[in-house]
Structure formats: C-alpha cells, structure tokens
Amino acid sequence: MKRMLLGIMLLALALVIPAPTMAGVDVGVNISLPPLIVFSAPPEVVVIPETYVYAVPDVDVDIFFYDGWWWRPWEGRWYRSRHYDSGWAYYRRVPSFYGRIPSGWRNDYRDRRWKGHEWNHQRIPHQQVQKNWGNWKKTNHWEKQQSWGVQGLEHRTRSHPPSRAVAPKSQAKPQSRKVQQQSKHRQGYPERGGKEKQDRKQDRKQDRK
Q: Does a structural domain hold residue 164?
C-alpha cells in the first residue's frame, strides 16, 4: 500500500513540474515552420542605415541578420535560426530590432536613397558578417564608415552632461576685527595697542629696579 501511494505521488509531481523551455522560443508541435529557401550560394547582405541589422536584398521575403541570429517573418509569426537556410524555430515575440526597419527599405535599396540622401550601400559577403558582426557593433564600425554610406547623414552623437556654468565670484565677506589684526600681524604690521604693551613692560622693569 505504501509503495502504491509513493508511486502516485511521484507521478503527480512529474505532471505538475514543467519541462524547461528556451526563452522566447516555443517548442510546440502545432506551429508550422516556414518553407526553406534554396540559395545557390551564401547570401550577401546590406546593413540598414542607422542600425546594425543586416538584410538579404536578393530574395522576395524578408531575411535579416542581427546579433548572431538569422530572422524571418512568415504568416504573422517570427522565426530565427543560426543558419540562413535551415533550422528555423518559432519565436514568440517580435524581435526588438524590427521597429527600426522601415517597411520600404527595399525601395530605398533599389533607389540608393535613404531619407532623401544618396545611399552608397555596399554588399557584404556572408562570411564577413558572420565573423565580424560583434566587433563592428562594439566599435561603431558603420558610423565611422561615412555614416553607413549615406551622404549627409548626421551622426548620432552620444549625449553629454551639460557643462557646469561658471559661478560668479562671490563678494568677500568683511573680515572681523580680530582676523584683520591677525592678518596684519602676519604681514609685519604691528598690532593695535602693541606699543602700549611694550611701554607697560618697560615701566614694570623700571619699577623693579
């Protein structure tokens, strides 16, 4: 009887405790995966100005590379993978970078224009972005490369704390009579009443004689 109760308790615990899951990734079997895209060669990418998001311009669907992951939307959902052509897994949220991507970035790419400025974009080989994305982001690489290749694009300077205003010199407070006497004494001026004190000392000496 005790063995049966123990077995029931263990079974109940196994049903209550959930299995660990990856943060942001849903492993549910009911969510379909996007169709694979066949590439004849590893895709080249372009960096979206004012971001560190890289986009694949030569396919009809959106595929982005950001922070070491490949990302793609499909049927209202988002998926990510470590590979550009396989291994897609459902991602529960809209990735944070997507809010900075204009919906018409492809038109900007084709027209070589960005916010009304000439955009001399460059195509980046797959191996380069896979190898250097972290260092580029850390060292502000694309800001230094003529502002992502956009002519006339203003740099986003980091905000600096406001400089402290020079306070006007406060008027010196009048010194007390005691402080003035001490100051004069240090500068070699005799203290007021000093002569009288010396005279009294001389008188005392004479009286003792």
A: no
